[in-house]
Every structure is written in structure tokens, then in C-alpha cells.
Task: structure prediction
Amino acid sequence: MKYFKAIVAMSLNRVIGAGNEIPWHLPEDFKWFKKMTMGNVVVMGRKTFESIGKPLPNRKNMVLTRHPQRLIKEHPEIFGDYHEWRGGKYLKRPYQFHFSKIDGKAQTDILIFRSLDKLDPAEFPNDIFICGGAQIYEQALPRCSDLYLTLVKREVAGGDAFFPPFEDKFELVKELRDEPEFKILHYRHKNLTEEAPPKKAKKAKDANQGVLGLDT
Ligand SMILES: NC(=O)c1ccc[n+]([C@@H]2O[C@H](COP(=O)([O-])OP(=O)(O)OC[C@H]3O[C@@H](n4cnc5c(N)ncnc54)[C@H](OP(=O)(O)O)[C@@H]3O)[C@@H](O)[C@H]2O)c1
Result:
């Protein structure tokens, strides 16, 4: 069974956003986020996507909205630059809209979908990171095996987006970093654990092993 992973930065009083923005600027934390998500799938709510103002490059950006067409229509400055895939196998997928752009060797995708329930992490070879905001964390945390939490060592006044309680369902595995302004903590869900990928069968040393079905 494969699960989502969540990545978030929250203040001591659980703030993750204010006025549809992240209320701090911590370049080292951005670097950490980039390192973790690069080449993977990032899932975000429509408000977070609009707040970033563009897809995250070299990643599959999955944007959750109940009004996909409206999102596309309202942002020609984003979608105008992308190739839209129509029909084909993607019609059977949980996302109705697929845009992509190739820049040199890097490919950036935007997949717009209406329901988190239909998204199965097993369909993707890479990690799927739940990247916020508050509404999406709330819905997806029960399906996350891992939580990478940047704890920003300050109280933030005026926040309007908060990280939901998770402490009873997750346990701390490791403190990955401790900096003057923040620490990075790795939590794991108490009941959901990712299965290790199956070990590759050893190559048969002689033809008999193949016949015996040890290396078919
Ligand atoms: N500190 C961090 O690590 C971090 C990370 C990410 C975001 N943030 C902050 O979080 C704030 C945004 O969070 P938010 O909770 O206001 O918004 P959000 O979760 O980013 O997006 C909410 C939107 O997602 C769509 N949505 C939610 N549930 C859905 C469902 N079940 N099916 C279909 N669509 C669904 C809806 O879009 P429609 O209205 O279009 O239907 C909804 O309005 C911002 O301040 C942002 O900066 C912080």
C-alpha cells in the first residue's frame, strides 16, 4: 500500500498562512522543500496554487478545485504558456485537465482535479507530497504515512490558516535539522507505514534455476 507524504512549515502557534501568503521568509526552508519535492508530485489546493502564482517547476503539480474551468479561465498568464492534453488515457484518470511544458530536459505539469478521494498514490512511481494549504492538509493527513514538519520558532499574530492537530496520530521519528529560526521534524503515522518495495529476484546462476522457476 502506498500513501501520501505531507510537507509543511508551521509556527509555534500552528499558523501556516496569513492573507493567502506564508508569513515568513526562510530561504533555507525553501531549499529543503525544493530538495524534497523536486521530480515528485505536489498536491495543493486552489488557494495555495494561486498564492504561488505558477506551478512549481520540474514537478507534477496537482491542483484541487471544485471549479477547474474557472481556474483555467481566470489565469491565462499561467495556462497560456502550457500545452493542454485532451482526451486519451487521461480521461479515465481522476484529473480532468492536464497541462505541460518542457523546458530543456525538465518537464512541468499541472493536473487539475476535483476530488482527493480518487487520487491513488500507487498510480505514480514517485512520492506524492501534500503541500497545503490548511483545507488540503485537513483532508489528506489521514492518508499520509510521513509528515515533514518545519517548526518555525516564533509565534505569528494575524494568521488565518492553521495546521490541523496531528500529534495523536503521528509519532516523531527524527529531528532532521535544528537551526536558530526553525527545526525540521520527521513524523510517521502510527498506523500507516509504507511497504518496502519488493526485492529484485536474484539472477539465475545457471539455466536450471530458471527452469525451477527461481528466476522467471
Ligand atoms: N506554511 C506552509 O507550509 C503552507 C503551505 C501551503 C499553503 N500555505 C498557506 O495556506 C493558506 C491557504 O490554505 P487554505 O486552506 O485557505 O486553502 P487551500 O487548501 O490552499 O485551497 C482551498 C481550495 O481547495 C479546493 N478544495 C478544497 N477541498 C476540496 C475538495 N475536497 N474537492 C475539491 N476541491 C477542494 C477549493 O477550491 P475552489 O474554491 O476553487 O473549489 C478550496 O477553496 C495560504 O495562506 C497559504 O500561503 C502554507
